[in-house]
Design goal:
alpha/beta; GMP Synthetase, Chain A, domain 3; Rossmann fold; seven-stranded mixed β-sheet; four-stranded mixed β-sheet; 13 strands
Length: about 270
C-alpha cells in the first residue's frame, strides 16, 4: 500500500478535511522524513503517530520545517512522533552509513546517482570525493575492487560520522578521510575520478578538482543546481575553466531532479584530458 493511501485509511477524519496529506516519505535507517504543508501541531502529531505504523523500520518521524542551508548542508526537520534518538545506521546496496538525518542531509533524490557509482568506478582507480558528507559517494566507490578513495568533509560532526562509517564498512584500508575545506585540503595529481556532490555554484570548486586529477586526465562528476535554460552556459563555463588550467574537456549532462520550481539539480560528467 502506498503511503498516502495508508494515511487516508488510518486517518479518515483528517483525510476528509482540507489538509493536504503527504504522498511520500523518505526512510533513513529508523527515521521517517516527511514533507507537509501545515504547521498545526495536532495534525503533525496525528500524521507522525500514524506513520509509525506504516513500516516496521520506522521508530521516529520528523517533518521538514525549512530548507537545507549552509556549506555543511544542514537540513531543517522537527521530530513529531516516536523515539527522540534519531542517530541511526542506514543501509543502501549493502553499504552502511551512520548519521542523524535531522542534522545531516541524506537525499532520496540522489539514490540513483549513488547506485551508479558502482558502475562508473573501475577497479584500481583512485577516487577523490570533495564533499564527502557521511560517505554517500565515497563508500559506494570503495566497494569496487582495489579502489582507493580520498574523502574530504568540512563539517567536524559530519566528518566524525564519516570516520565511524569507514569502520562500520571495514574500509580502513580503502578510504582516507580528510577534515577540512576541499579547496585547500585536496590531494594533487592522484585522481582518476572526482565526485563533487555539492549543489550551489559548484563550478567555483572546479579548479581544485582539476588539480586533484592525474596529469593524464580523468573524469569529474560535478553536481549543480540552476535554471534549466542555463545548461549551455554552464557547459561553456566548465570548458573555459578547464582551458584556463591547460586541460581539454568533453562534457555531457543529465537532470537528476527538480530542486525547486524552475530550478533543477543536474550532474555534469566532465571527461578531462591534457
Amino acid at each position: 500500500m502506498k503511503y498516502r493511501e495508508y494515511l487516508v485509511q488510518t486517518l479518515p477524519d483528517l483525510a476528509k478535511t482540507s489538509v493536504d496529506l503527504p504522498s511520500s516519505l523518505h526512510i533513513v535507517g529508523h527515521v521517517a522524513l516527511v514533507n507537509m504543508r501545515t504547521e498545526d501541531p495536532q495534525i503533525l502529531a496525528s500524521v507522525g503517530q500514524a506513520t509509525l505504523g506504516f513500516d516496521k523500520r520506522i521508530k521516529s518521524v520528523a517533518v521538514r520545517i525549512g530548507p537545507t542551508s549552509g556549506v555543511d548542508r544542514k537540513p531543517s526537520f522537527r521530530l513529531v512522533a516516536g523515539d527522540p534518538r534519531t542517530e541511526t545506521i542506514h543501509v543502501e546496496d549493502g553499504v552502511k552509513f551512520k548519521l542523524d538525518p535531522l542534522e545531516i542531509t541524506f537525499s532520496r533524490g540522489n539514490r540513483r546517482e549513488r547506485h551508479l557509482v558502482g558502475r562508473q568506478v573501475k577497479p584500481g582507480e583512485v577516487v577523490v570525493d570533495m564533499f564527502s558528507c557521511v560517505g554517500q559517494f565515497a563508500f559506494h566507490a570503495a566497494s569496487v575492487e582495489d579502489v582507493q578513495v580520498v574523502a574530504i568533509e568540512v563539517s567536524q560532526r559530519t566528518y566524525d560520522y564519516l570516520v565511524e562509517g569507514i569502520t562500520l564498512n571495514g574500509f580502513g584500508d580503502r578510504v582516507k578521510p580528510i577534515l577540512g575545506d576541499c579547496r585547500t585540503k585536496h590531494p594533487d595529481g592522484i585522481a582518476d575520478r572526482v565526485y563533487m556532490g555539492f549543489l550551489h555554484e559548484t563550478n567555483r570548486y572546479l579548479p581544485h578538482a582539476l588539480e586533484s586529477l592525474k596529469q593524464a586526465g580523468g573524469v569529474i562528476h560535478m553536481h549543480m543546481t540552476h535554471p534549466e535554460r542555463e545548461v549551455e552556459t554552464v557547459s561553456k563555463g566548465i570548458q573555459a575553466i578547464c582551458l584556463e588550467h591547460g586541460r581539454s574537456s568533453s562534457i555531457s549532462s543529465r537532470r537528476i531532479k527538480w530542486y525547486s520550481p524552475g530550478i533543477m539539480h543536474r550532474v555534469y560528467e566532465i571527461m578531462v584530458s591534457t
